């Protein structure tokens, strides 16, 4: 059993080879210091950090990210090392919070090589700190232990390194932060790597601006593994004309064994292209601003420029060069955006139901599928440079993580304009839309939905699901209903896990439903007690492995009384919002993307029509 540590507590380590997992909910950088028995770090060479990731027995990631995995082999560290300290710090200038107290509590897990947890530590009580010593692995009488430290520093990484006894700590802290700036954080999981076909060629790189890259180094925004249509292929009559100098876009122009797989890979390719071309544009603009500042500083520092018109001429020349560089960068961006827009206008109408918006004509010809698709559309993503260019947000099936539709205000400007009741209504409508979509893309006999609605507040929104008969039972109400459903599902997960791990599926109880399950929880934590909260956490963590997925509709503030106990629950779920919100980041350069939920068009009956077809198909299957 994994030990839950509190600040100052220690725990023996049964292994010397370890994996330390970090989950922060926002980008953080990770580092490790190696200290002697007195706790002194001999120098910068005893610090593993993003600019120098490996030391004997220790390896840390190169980038800031919301999650990390650090490799530690205590048997391989120098014999003089008696303390291994795990450090966390917030990157400077990132889009995330500037202090740890403004976000979810970081959680660290010390695990064995096979992934089995040894100790967990949730770091609570943080406020203005931007750097902290999270854990300490220390040697005592020949054996290693882990201690929960959680010591924060308001002065940031430099103050922390000073406290570790390092010389020139500000210089080392600066080099670490500079190294992180070259490796953007990754928060959205990229799809599995695609195997290029032998006859595929690389897609031509979007035209790069002529200006040099920003001081952090050039960002490679060339998408690999995609190709244009062959030269000379004219646009099809229904396709928009291709931008000048580019071949006509073709739907399904990506690797894959089926059209669905090719379209899935093409959408992710468009996602990557848009991320990288925007990164190049922003990098060029940052360079232009930096160059302008430097040239203005030189003009002001030269005494000769203060006499006559020489200074004015130098400033005018610097401004003209700045405008030229930004104009060229914008021209390159507009050219690339035009190409991606043309591709989007061809790909969007070709998407199958699982990947399509609710207003797509493909839903009018919907039939219940015989097998589940590769992925499902959870909404749209876009960037401020071209808000009309929407990228489908496709999540692989089966879902690796549950979903959380956030009914709270968060930091969204759109949510701030709505009253609380309207925001909760929209959150529930978004959840019902997602449930209907998940039901529709699975075969009739392969997906079950259970609903927990303790106070019955969602009766109106859940009506299409109840009336169509797609639910596995009526929504559970009251504390007794909550306890009954969670007890049933917990027992089911336990049985399936035991059978899976023992390779004894034939020993499962007769009649046990092995179909994929979705549990929808509304109005959390109303109707829950400590026991059912722990069961819910268990289902969020262990359920996906055996086909049970969670969809929460909740405002995190409503559950604030539980404190950090629920932090692992929220982190286990993919956060979605009922209104536009820029809380998701791509896995290539870390842009903040605005997410928009899958909205059923006003007055449309498409959702009820789809659910009706699912119900008819289930009757035919005898379900």
**DSSP, total strands:** 21
The N- and C-terminal alpha carbons lie at a distance of: 39 Å
Q: Please mark out the parts with pLDDT under 50 across 5 or more consecutive residues, or reply none.
A: 184-190, 193-240
Q: Oligomeric state of the chains?
A: single chain
- Overall mean pLDDT score? 84
Rg estimate, integer Å: 27 Å
Strand content: 15-25%
* Major sheet: 12 strands, mixed
| Global shape | globular
Number of helices: 11
Helix fraction bin? 25-40%
Going by helix content, strand content and strand pairing, the class is alpha+beta
How does this model look, in words?
With 623 residues, this protein is of the alpha+beta class. It contains eleven helices and 21 strands. It has helices spanning 156-163, 169-181, 259-301, 310-350, 413-416, 420-441, 459-468, 478-502, 530-542, 567-571, 606-621; strands at 3-5, 10-12, 17-35, 47-48, 54-55, 58-59, 65-73, 83-89, 107-111, 117-122, 131-140, 143-153, 375-382, 391-396, 402-406, 447-452, 516-522, 548-554, 573-576, 581-585, 592-596. Strands 1, 2, 3, 4, 5, 6, 7, 8, 9, 10, 11 and 12 form a twelve-stranded mixed sheet that branches. The protein has a five-stranded parallel sheet with strand order 16-17-18-15-19, sandwiched between helices. A four-stranded antiparallel sheet has the order 14-13-21-20. Strand 13 and strand 14 form a beta hairpin. Helix 6 packs parallel to helix 7. The longest helix is centred in the middle third of the chain and has 43 residues, at 259-301. It is globular, with a radius of gyration of 27 Å. The two termini are 39 Å apart.
């Amino acid at each position: 059993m994994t030990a839950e540590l509190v600040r100052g507590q220690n725990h023996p380590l049964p292994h010397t080879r370890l994996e330390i997992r970090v989950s922060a909910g926002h980008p953080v950088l990770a580092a490790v210091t190696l200290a002697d028995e007195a706790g002194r770090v001999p120098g910068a060479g005893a610090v593993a950090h993003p600019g120098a990731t490996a030391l004997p027995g220790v390896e840390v990631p190169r980038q800031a990210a919301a999650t990390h995995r650090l490799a530690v082999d205590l048997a391989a560290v120098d014999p003089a090392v008696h303390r291994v300290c795990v450090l966390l710090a917030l990157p400077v200038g990132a889009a995330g919070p500037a202090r740890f107290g403004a976000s979810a509590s970081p959680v660290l897990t010390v695990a064995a090589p096979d992934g089995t947890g040894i100790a967990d530590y949730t770091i609570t009580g943080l406020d203005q700190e931007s750097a902290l010593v999270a854990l300490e692995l220390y040697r005592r009488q020949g054996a290693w232990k882990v201690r929960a430290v959680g010591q924060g520093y308001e002065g940031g990484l430099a103050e922390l390194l000073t406290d570790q006894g390092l010389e020139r700590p500000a210089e080392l802290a600066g080099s670490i932060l500079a190294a992180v700036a070259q490796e953007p954080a990754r928060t959205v999981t990229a799809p599995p790597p695609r195997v290029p076909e032998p006859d595929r060629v690389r897609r031509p790189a979007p035209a790069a601006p002529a200006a040099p890259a920003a001081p952090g180094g050039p960002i490679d925004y060339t998408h690999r593994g995609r190709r244009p249509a062959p030269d000379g292929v004219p646009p099809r009559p229904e396709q928009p004309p291709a931008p000048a100098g580019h071949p006509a876009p073709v739907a399904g122009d990506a690797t894959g064994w089926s059209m669905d797989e090719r379209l899935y890979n093409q959408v992710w390719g468009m996602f990557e292209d848009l991320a990288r071309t925007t990164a190049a544009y922003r990098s060029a603009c940052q360079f232009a601003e930096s160059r302008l500042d430097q040239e203005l500083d030189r003009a002001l520092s030269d005494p000769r420029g203060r006499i006559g018109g020489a200074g004015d001429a130098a400033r005018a020349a610097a401004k003209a060069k700045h405008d030229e560089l930004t104009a060229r960068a914008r021209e390159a961006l507009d050219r690339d955006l035009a190409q991606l827009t043309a591709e989007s206008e061809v790909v969007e109408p070709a998407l199958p139901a699982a990947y399509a918006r609710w207003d797509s004509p493909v839903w009018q010809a919907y039939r219940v599928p015989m097998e589940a698709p590769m992925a499902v559309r959870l909404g749209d993503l876009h960037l401020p440079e071209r808000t009309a260019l929407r990228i489908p947000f496709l999540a692989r099936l089966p879902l690796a993580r549950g979903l959380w539709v956030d009914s709270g205000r968060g930091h969204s400007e759109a949510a701030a304009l709505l009253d609380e009741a309207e925001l909760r209504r929209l959150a529930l409508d978004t959840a019902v839309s997602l449930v209907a979509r998940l039901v529709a893309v699975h075969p009739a006999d392969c997906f079950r939905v259970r609903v927990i609605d303790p106070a019955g507040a969602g009766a109106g929104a859940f009506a299409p699901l109840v009336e169509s008969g797609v639910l596995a039972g009526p929504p559970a109400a009251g504390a007794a209903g909550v306890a009954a459903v969670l007890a049933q599902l917990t027992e089911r997960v336990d049985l399936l896990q035991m059978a899976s791990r023992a390779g004894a599926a034939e020993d499962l109880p007769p009649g046990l439903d092995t179909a994929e399950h979705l549990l929808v929880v509304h109005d959390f934590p109303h109707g829950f007690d400590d026991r059912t909260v722990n069961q819910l956490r268990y289902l969020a963590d262990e359920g996906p492995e055996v086909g049970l997925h969670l969809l929460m509709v909740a405002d995190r503030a409503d559950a604030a009384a539980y404190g950090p106990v629920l932090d692992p629950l929220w982190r286990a779920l993919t956060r979605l919002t009922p209104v536009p919100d820029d809380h998701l980041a791509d896995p290539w350069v870390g842009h903040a993307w605005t997410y928009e939920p899958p909205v059923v068009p006003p007055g449309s009956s498409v959702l009820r029509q789809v659910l009706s077809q699912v119900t008819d198909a289930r009757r035919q299957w005898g379900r």
